[in-house]
Amino acid sequence: MSIKSWKRRGDWLELMPGKVVTGSSDKQMAVEQWLQSELQFPEKMLRQLQANQGIQLAGDRLRLALFASRPIEVEPRWAEIDVLYEDDFVLVVHKPAGMKLHPDGSRVDTAITLDHAVASYYEMNGIQASVRHVHRLDEDTTGPVLYAKNVFALAKLDEAMRNKEIGRHYVAIAGGQVPQTLQLINAPIGKDRHHKQRRRVSPNGQEAITHIQLVEVFPRATLVRLTLDTGRTHQIRVHMGYAGHALIGDELYGGAPDRIGRQALHGELLVFKHPLTGAVIEVADPWPDDFKQLIDRVSNR
């Protein structure tokens, strides 16, 4: 992809495709081919824009109606959020511990989720877009969460997730001294019939692959970095427990209780290609205070 310059003008994205379009005898066909080759424009969305007069060519400028106002669709509930990265296409925010990512659908649930907080952020800043997260984090896992701010970005990022092209890098504090030989866990994960919230390694489960890198070994714990080839529910927690090194604080999977009061797991880096330009975006999320305090405690034992 070679889109280096673009401008937003209200509801419209303005691009300059060059002579491959402006010099063509069939400009409509040239526009369609250029969008598919340069932007990998989703076919369904292209047809929708064409049907709704959402594609305009004026001189050397191509305009696409990508920023049409859309309902937020999640009740805005204010909570302070830490924005790590933002432009007209994407938003990356830090999810704190103890906050669910999205509402569970219960009418009596009054807890403020990250989606609620993002909806409030959109409302306060005049962003007329639906709240759409691209991936998930557990309630007590901290780290960056990626949101798509328009349907084009959502389609491109959802495809990137399916193709395992969005890198999610985690850091965790595991119990015991993890051996240097534990570098890969390839074990399928399924539901635990005996516990509604828990998952377990199961021969009939879905493929799950976790890569492990030792960072520092302490007397009774190990600091590790982890990357995922798959995104199963509780994957890191299940795999580390299965390997005999459950995360500290993760009592659901056999981890030692600790005053951190949650699994010692943090998403420290998110890597993805920008949905329009294809540029690689790296968003780091600093370790939260409770995680740093736990490092201090285990390193002094």
Question: Would you give an account of this structure?
Answer:
The active site is at residue 138. It catalyses: a uridine in RNA = a pseudouridine in RNA. GO terms for molecular function: catalytic activity, acting on RNA; pseudouridine synthase activity; RNA binding. Among the domains are: 7-64, no CATH class; 168-267 and 293-299, Pseudouridine synthase (2-Layer Sandwich). Helix content is 22%, strand content 27%. It is built from 7 helices and 15 strands. It has helices at residues 19-22, 27-38, 43-51, 114-124, 151-162, 235-242, 289-299, and strands at residues 7-9, 12-15, 55-58, 61-64, 82-86, 90-95, 143-148, 167-175, 184-186, 189-191, 199-201, 209-217, 221-228, 265-273, 280-284. It has a 6-stranded antiparallel sheet, with helices on both faces. A 4-stranded antiparallel sheet has the order 1-2-4-3, with no helix packed on it. The longest helix is centred in the first third of the chain and has 12 residues, at 27-38. The protein is elongated, with a radius of gyration of 22 Å. The model has no long low-confidence stretch (mean pLDDT 93).
